[in-house]
Amino acid sequence: MSVDDHAIEQALARGAHQQIGQYRLDLGTGVWWWSPETYRLHGFEPGDVVPTTALVLAHKHPDDRERVREILEEARRTGEPFSSVHRIMDAHGSERFLVVVGQGRRDRETGEVTELVGYFVDVTRTVTTHAQERARHDIAAAAETRGAIEQAKGIVMLAYGVHPDEAFARLRRASNDRNVPLRELARLVVHEGTLGGPDGVERVATLLR
Questions:
Q1: Strands of 32-34's sheet, edge to edge?
Q2: Which residues pair with 120 in a beta bridge?
Q3: Residue 135: which domain range?
Q4: pLDDT band per the 50, 70, 90 thresholds, residue 74
Q5: Last residue of a domain, one of 122, 156, 174
Q6: For 45, 83, 95, 140, which has the most beta carbons within 10 A of its beta carbon?
Q7: Residue in 12, 3, 13, 21 with CA at minimum distance from that of residue 98
Q8: What pLDDT, on a 0 to 100 scale, did the predictor assign at position 3?
Q9: CATH assignment at residue 9
Q10: 110/145 same-domain check
């Protein structure tokens, strides 16, 4: 697959709202050519700065900077197609997630890699949306778990006539002793405690032994 095909595939996979910018890096001078879209991805207007490798790396997130440096060095040596997902801090201080794809171009006479060319694709919206969906899922799961634990505490309080802290302590102790996650034990207690019947308390007590 060529870098053009790969870049287009990446962009389409992430939706029509993603911004795509082109670049070309002259390996002899270290100077980059950016399309207007690439300037804007980095928080600049075309012509505001002269893009160099130093500038490009300076805008990478500190946790991703060395990895991007190594990718560029490998591409410089081999000219092979490459891709990476990393974070940048644009000129306005905003964090963005970019996919960069590229490949080397060789001098026809010497065979040396003289340029890297490719695309930047802004996937911030996709990453943010995914993170928000995951956060909502985690919050809902936590709320569900907490609900079960609170219900189980109530059942233990009624069964043993103890205060909430003592009820929770008994649940936690049984969870550790039985090597069962607290949320799973709580669901079992709620299930047994809501079945009713004269032996309901005994069923709950069995779970807590």
A1: 32-34, 20-26, 113-122, 95-106, 82-89
A2: 21, 100
A3: 129-208
A4: very high
A5: 122
A6: 83
A7: 21
A8: 41
A9: 3.30.450.20
A10: no
